Amino acid sequence: MKKFVAAIDQGTTSTRCILFDHFGKIIASDQKEHSQIYPQPGWVEHDPQEIWINTVQVIHGALIKAGLEPKDVSAVGITNQRETTLVWNRLTGKPYGNAIVWQDTRTDSICNQLAQVEGQNRYRSKTGLPLATYFSGPKIRWFLENNPDLRKDAQSGIAIFGNMDTWLIWNLTGGIHGGNHVTDVTNASRTLLMNLQALCWDSDICSEIGIPISMLPEILPSSSSFGICKETLDGVPITGVLGDQQAALFGQTCFNPGEAKNTYGTGCFMLMNTGTQPVPSKSGLLTTVGYKIGDSPAIYCLEGSIAITGALVQWLRDNLKFIEKSEDIETLAEAVEDNGGIYFVPAFSGLFAPYWRSDARGIIAGLTRYVNKGHIARAVLEATAYQTREVLEAMEKDSGVKLSTLRVDGGMVRNHLLMQFQADILNVPVLRPSITETTALGAAYAAGLQVHYWETLDDLRANWSIDHTWSPDMPEVKRTSLYRFWKKAVQKSMDWVEE
After folding, report:
1. Other CB atoms closer than 10 Å to residue 328's CB: what's the count?
2. CA dist., res. 206 & res. 425, Å (int)
3. 3-class state of residue 234 by DSSP
4. What is the rounded CA–CA span in Å between residue 401 and residue 385?
5. How far is 20 from 4, CA to CA, in rounded Å?
6. Distance CA 216, CA 203 (A)
7. Rounded distance between C-alpha atoms, residue 425 and residue 430, angstroms
8. Residue 28, Cβ neighbours under 10 Å: how many?
9. CA distance linking residue 112 with residue 120, whole number of Å
10. Residue 499 has pLDDT above 80, yes or no
């Protein structure tokens, strides 16, 4: 029987397993949501044990739907929500508490304390990242400061750290019975602890933040041998690992410098390939590793990270009960001709790129009695497009490259109203590929290259095709006016949280 490649996509709200064929087509998939835990304002957690159980279930579910067995799978790739941080006991397999999600802001005081020396960009020259609650390093320190037994266990090598990729690899390859404690360069580059040039843990930064290097996993290329699965997917090699946004870049086949993609998920993430040298950002973007295939040089990216996009639609659905299903927002927004003069700045976790303001909080500006549910729904969608424009402008400024098109993927790209407004406010065509599950596809591609399921990057390019194009159709005067009021609203969201 023809063999396939599996991808485990461990996201912020759910975990999926997707089986792909040689043409990048989906053979079968299974998905399961996990709980979002909010212990107090600004805190966001996940139960890592629940995520592991869900992972096992969706792997079995996808195989059953496809009528396949593990022996029919050539390799498995893993892609994951980045920065979400957990620490567990390598002897018992039990976490020292829930995972701290990338959106969580509890490490604000730790970041402020570290920034007292040399400011927010203290580690940017080495890591490409500002000091921010977003990244894993400060989260590990929070664990160490708030669990009395943890530091002792960490120094003795019993307590180990991982993002979700490391947690899944460790469990899939044996767990307490010799599971591999490894990660890839893309996930490591999001910890604030890895030296971008050397692609290894920076001992000086680890010491200054207060993290024993013994806690940290071994860093491997994105396409390499991470271990062999035991029990679940028994005997199948794990040969590809990428953080979710880098996986989407790889799945969109953005292999040339200057090519970019934008993923519309819980948050929104635009990445541009900058080649084999990291490009420092002066405009509030992140410099990060895009991917590393085997012994080939690492490819770097500029990234603009937006915390809340699809999550704002979920908030409208779950907290305010405006809609029953997320996709209903398009119908509600189409009930009105425009936003009614209102702007929704979703700074629920502060502002990410290009501002990096943890003191900001969400606001709705411009309210009058004229405004109804439709206007609010429209403002929710437009917020995603405005934030994307801010990131795109910063990216063009840093890179010196003017984007002619934008490749898009993620759950929200099925929303025609949003995608048309995105093209209008950017004034560039927006391209949706035939296969929109590019995050999982990127992980599958990285895994497949390692086992020669695919031989070259050109094989992957041949699979990419356009499903739909949205072309800009908005007068420049209107575009300028809308964006000017958006920028005004953003300024009003700042300086809300006080020390």
Report:
1. 15
2. 42
3. coil
4. 20
5. 6
6. 11
7. 11
8. 18
9. 8
10. no
Do the beta carbons of residue 87 and residue 94 sit within 8 Å?
no
Residue 285 backbone dihedrals phi, psi, to 5 degrees: -95, 170
Q: CB under 8 Å, gap of 24 or more: what pairs does 481-490 form?
A: 482/382, 482/386, 482/425, 483/386, 483/389, 483/425, 485/343, 485/366, 486/343, 486/382, 486/386, 488/343, 488/365, 489/343, 489/345, 489/363, 489/365, 489/366, 490/345, 490/351, 490/355, 490/390
Give the residue carrying structure tokens 């040298």: 277
Contacting residues for 143 by C-beta, under 8 A, at least 6 apart? 85, 87, 96, 97, 100, 150
Q: What residue type is 250 in one-letter code?
A: F
pTM listed for this prediction:
0.84
Longest dimension (CA), the chain: 64
The pair of three-digit structure tokens given for residue 42, joined into one six-digit string = 């600004």
Decide: 50 and 164 in contact? Cβ < 8 Å.
Answer: no
Of 13, 87, 55, the C-alpha closest to 238 is 55
Closest to 80 measured CA to CA, from 140, 137, 136, 133: 136
- Are 353 and 304 in contact by the 8 Å Cβ rule? The answer is yes
On the CB side of 129, CA atoms within 13 Å amount to 26
- Dump pLDDT digits (tens) for 10-43: 999 899 999 999 999 999 999 999 999 999 988 9
Q: Evaluate if residue 135 carries a pLDDT over 50.
A: yes
Here the tokens at position 282 are 């002066």
Q: Are 102 and 81 in contact (CB under 8 A)?
A: yes
Rounded mean pLDDT, 132-153: 92
Task: Tell me if the bond preceding 472 is cis, omega within 30° of 0.
Answer: no
Which two structure tokens, joined as six digits, stand for 180? 């591999």
312: which residues sit within 8 A by CB, 6+ positions away? 344, 346, 348, 380, 383, 384
3-class DSSP state for residue 473? coil
What pLDDT, on a 0 to 100 scale, did the predictor assign at position 1? 46
Average pLDDT for 282-287:
88
For residue 185, name the pLDDT band (cuts at 50, 70, 90): very high
